[in-house]
TrEMBL record:
<dbReference type="InterPro" id="IPR050389">
    <property type="entry name" value="LysR-type_TF"/>
</dbReference>
<dbReference type="InterPro" id="IPR036388">
    <property type="entry name" value="WH-like_DNA-bd_sf"/>
</dbReference>
<dbReference type="InterPro" id="IPR000847">
    <property type="entry name" value="LysR_HTH_N"/>
</dbReference>
<comment type="similarity">
    <text>Belongs to the LysR transcriptional regulatory family.</text>
</comment>
<dbReference type="Pfam" id="PF03466">
    <property type="entry name" value="LysR_substrate"/>
</dbReference>
<keyword id="KW-0804">Transcription</keyword>
<dbReference type="Pfam" id="PF00126">
    <property type="entry name" value="HTH_1"/>
</dbReference>
<keyword id="KW-0010">Activator</keyword>
<keyword id="KW-0238">DNA-binding</keyword>
<keyword id="KW-0536">Nodulation</keyword>
<keyword id="KW-0805">Transcription regulation</keyword>
<protein>
    <submittedName>
        <fullName>LysR family transcriptional regulator</fullName>
    </submittedName>
</protein>
<dbReference type="InterPro" id="IPR036390">
    <property type="entry name" value="WH_DNA-bd_sf"/>
</dbReference>
<feature type="domain" description="HTH lysR-type">
    <location>
        <begin position="10"/>
        <end position="67"/>
    </location>
</feature>
<dbReference type="InterPro" id="IPR005119">
    <property type="entry name" value="LysR_subst-bd"/>
</dbReference>
Amino acid sequence: MMNDATLRKIDLNLLLAFSVLMQERNVSRAAERLLLGQPGLSAALRRLREALDDELFVRVGRGLQPTPRALSIAPAIEDALSGIERAIRPQAEFDPASWQGEFRIGMCDNLESAFFGPLAARLLKLSPGARLIGIASEKRDAARRLDEGVFDFSVSVHDEPASWHIRAPLFDQASICIYDAAQLRLKAPLSLEDFANAAHLTVSFEGNAATSIDIALGRTGHVRQVVATVPRFSALPTALRAMPAIATVPESIGRCMAQLHGLTICAPPLALPADPVTMLYRRVDQADGRARWFRRLFLDVASQALEASGCRVSISRAAA
C-alpha cells in the first residue's frame, strides 16, 4: 500500500502529465498540449516513475508504449481529473437552440441507413444553427480517428477500448434475410434447404465472401453459393431487384431496405451470432455539455428508429 510520503510526491501536475502522455504517446506533442518544454515534462515523468516505482512508459520507435501498471491506473486517474475539472469549472448548461457549429458522428453504412436520417431531422428541429456531419467509419480505425477528433463519437461494433475511451453498449444486432419475392419465389419462413440452395449476395468492404453464416451453415452440413459480393449495403437493393438471390444483413438496415424497395424479409432458418453495437467516445468528453447532449440525442433517436422499424431489439438501459 502506498505510504503518505509517496502520496505527497504526486501532485496534480504529475497526474495531468500522465493523462496527456496516455493520450498522445509522444513527449513533444504532450509537452505542447501542456504548454511545457520537453525537459519539464521529462522531469515530471521521472518524478512520477520514482513515486510509483514503475517505468510507466517505454519508448517504441518514435512513440511511447504504456506499461501494464500505467494501463491499470489510467481510468482512475482520468476519473479523478474529470471530477476535479467538474468541481472547479462548473459548465454552463448547453443550449442547442442557440448553438452554431458541427456535430460529427462516425458510423458504418448499415447503421447510417437506419439512424442518420432521423438524427438529422431531429437535430434540425432542436438546433437549427447546427450541421450534422456523418463520417464513414470502420471498427478497425474508429479509436484512432476518435483520438484525432474526426468525430464526436462512433457507433459500430468496436474492439476492446483503450483506458481513455468509454464504450457504451447500445444493442445486439441480429441478422435478417432479405430478397425480392418476384425474383426469388420462396415463401417465408424459409426452410434451411431453401436458404442453402438459393444464390447469395454478401457485403464486404474488403471483398471477402466467407462470413459467420458459412460457419453456421457448415455445422448443419450445408454449403451456400455466393454469386456476388458488394462493398456497401447501398448496392444490395438494386442487385436483389435484378436477380433471384438472397442477402443476410443486419436487421436494422434490412427493415429499412424492405420498406423503401418493397423487398421481403424473414428470420434466418438457423441460429446466427448477434454483433454487439456500441458507442465509443473519449473519457475526457464524458462531462462536456455539448458532447453529452449529442450522445443523449442519438440514444433517443436510435431507440425510436428501432421501434418504428419493427426491430426486435432496443437500446440498452446501460447506455441510457
